[in-house]
């Protein structure tokens, strides 16, 4: 009898253990509806991620890249160089078509861009004339009417003469202009009161020349170099990058540049500064990229990121070396603040020289 009772007790314990294990397995196993909910949640998350990726803005047609000046100048060179690197490096999938719209020191091009105020497929290079031109009353449009995307380069002004010019250095030129400011005709590719004019006026004013007597010719079709080589003018005020190829060819001589000290690199290392010639003057020709005033935030973000990627590429660095440009990267927000500060500085400069009340 004891054996029977002992057997029943052991049997009961075994069954209880088995039942407990089965109960535990049931509790841990997910229900079919729970499996369905989990699968639906995972699918929804993946769909949302794919939708966000699909909705990220990118150009859907060719980008119109407006150079508000003639071929060969700083804006034209900047636009074509940016377009070349962006396309070759596959940073943008669409073609970037550079279109020249010269006139008014940039005002004609800006007016065209302003008419396409919401166009997300429109860009243009910018530099100090975006401030000089409205400050001297030649345009109602200024830097606040457009969308700053990024600053890219820092260049310097260069004052150049033909290789056979009697002016061997900047002081030779200054001495001649002190005796008679109107005896020398200076050409630039920007309008009177704009960058090529102002960078030269600022330099000779610092050297003691009566700036109001300087004869300046505006060649807004980009023919300044042609006029110099043809003997129609004696001095060409331009960007340093625009002088390099003609210096290599032995056609021109650089009298001075507006950098604080000599630069390194092929060709540019031989360009004397104004400072080393006893003229206390420097000037940075910054250049960047803008879009229309009401460009969408999504498009502005795309272009800023694309320009950042371009600026870090070896291909872009090679172009900097080629033109003697210095990297001067600023993102949209920093560039916007910089522009406001530069406007105030240039406003004061023009007042000092007597070109603005």
UniProtKB/TrEMBL annotation:
Domain of life of the native organism: Bacteria
Pfam families, sorted: TctC
Biased segments, Acidic residues type: 39-55
Classification via CDD domains: PBP2_Bug_TTT (cd07012)
Signal peptide: 1-20
Biased composition (Basic and acidic residues): 25-38
Gene source species: Sporosarcina siberiensis
Region of interest (Disordered), residue spans: 25-58
Annotated family: Belongs to the UPF0065 (bug) family.
Entry keyword set: Signal
InterPro entries in alphabetical order: BUG, Bug_dom1
Protein name listed in UniProt: Tripartite tricarboxylate transporter substrate binding protein
């Amino acid at each position: 009898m004891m054996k029977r009772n002992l057997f029943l007790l052991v049997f009961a314990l075994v069954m209880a253990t088995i039942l407990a294990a089965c109960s535990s397995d049931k509790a841990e196993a997910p229900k079919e509806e729970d499996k369905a909910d989990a699968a639906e949640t995972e699918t929804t998350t993946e769909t949302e991620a794919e939708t966000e990726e699909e909705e990220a803005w990118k150009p859907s047609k060719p980008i119109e890249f407006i150079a508000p000046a003639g071929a060969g100048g700083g804006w034209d060179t900047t636009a074509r160089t940016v377009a070349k690197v962006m396309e070759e490096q596959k940073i943008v999938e669409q073609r970037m078509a550079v279109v020249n719209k010269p006139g008014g020191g940039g005002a004609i091009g800006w007016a065209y861009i302003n008419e396409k105020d919401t166009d997300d497929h429109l860009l243009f290079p910018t530099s100090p004339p975006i401030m000089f031109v409205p400050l001297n009353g030649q345009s109602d449009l200024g830097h606040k009417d457009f969308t700053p995307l990024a600053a890219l380069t820092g260049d310097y002004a260069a004052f150049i003469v033909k290789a056979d010019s009697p002016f061997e250095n900047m002081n030779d030129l200054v001495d001649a202009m002190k005796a008679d400011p109107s005896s020398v005709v200076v050409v630039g590719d920007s309008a009177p009161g704009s960058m090529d004019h102002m960078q030269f006026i600022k330099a000779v004013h610092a050297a003691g020349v009566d700036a109001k007597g300087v004869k300046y010719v505006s060649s807004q079709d980009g023919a300044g170099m042609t006029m110099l080589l043809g003997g129609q003018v004696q001095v060409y005020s331009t960007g340093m990058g625009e002088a390099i190829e003609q210096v290599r060819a032995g056609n021109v001589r650089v009298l001075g540049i507006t950098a604080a000290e000599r630069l390194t690199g092929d060709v540019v290392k031989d360009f004397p500064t104004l400072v080393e010639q006893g003229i206390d003057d420097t000037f940075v020709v910054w250049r960047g990229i803008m879009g229309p005033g009401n460009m969408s935030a999504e498009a502005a973000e795309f272009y800023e990121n694309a320009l950042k990627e371009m600026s870090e590429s070896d291909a872009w660095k090679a172009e900097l070396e080629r033109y003697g440009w210095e990297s001067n990267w600023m993102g949209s927000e920093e560039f916007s603040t910089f522009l406001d500060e530069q406007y105030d500085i240039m406003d004061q400069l023009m007042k000092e020289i007597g070109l603005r009340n």
